[in-house]
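Quick question, first post here. What does this chain look like in 3D?
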Amino acid sequence: MKLFYIPIIILFLFSCKKDKQVESPTAYRITKNITYNNISVDIIIDKPAINNLDVLLVFHGTVQSDSEIITAANTTLDNFKSILDRKNMMIVSVAHPQENILFGDNIMQAEAALLWIKNKANQEFGITVGKVFLAGHSQGGYLVTRLNTMHQTNGVIANSPGPLNLVYRCELEENGQAQPSTTCLKLKNVYGLTTVNSSAYFERSLLNFTNGFKSDILFVQGLDDSSIQLYSWPSFKQEVLNCTTCQNSQFVEIPGGHTALFENTLAKTEFNNFINSR
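> Answer (accepted):
Ran it through. Tokens below.
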């Protein structure tokens, strides 16, 4: 009888020990430097306590110095998290560079972050990524709109995306009708005045990226935004609506300024409906 029970007891104890070693999914917020295709960028990861999850990849607006991008990425993460109804999504905020590049060249870091989430996050974090959504504010909206012409995701949200028209914006600065910006100054140093080389400015404008959207996209625009933004908004909207090579495009135009998505109840509702319906 003793010989019969001893193996059973040992097996039971071993089984209990194994069960104790199983770790529950943990929630955390970390900053990590990632590399994809030899392009490196810092990302901030806000993960809930589950390991099978969808991802919202978010992008911040313009800052003056790269010393500010981690703060901007954290603030953008918090802003999107505050309006997101779902609590079971991992939010990843990209600290894309600003300072020592021409406007638009940080699309390389934006793309690297997206491809890393799609192809490497599972293995490096021991998670299972389901759906991937993109969202961006201001210059971040510019980046996610451009990414939508390059890679398919489950959906894209762009709040007050821009600059829409760098020719118009930088020409105002050249004529003293708008405050000088580092964006236009860098372009001028490389391309000359807008009157001399307008095509180079237009090629980097969001108006040049209104075709070939690979995923459904939601645009949110406050109608009390700056005159520079609103001057080109009708043209941009019409170009997108005219697109014959795009997935579905939806526009939400509401009272409010540049940050209308985070302040307007209708915009927040449409944001969550867009994500939850895909």
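The domain at 24-165+207-276 is CATH 3.40.50.1820 (Rossmann fold).
The chain has a mean pLDDT of 93.
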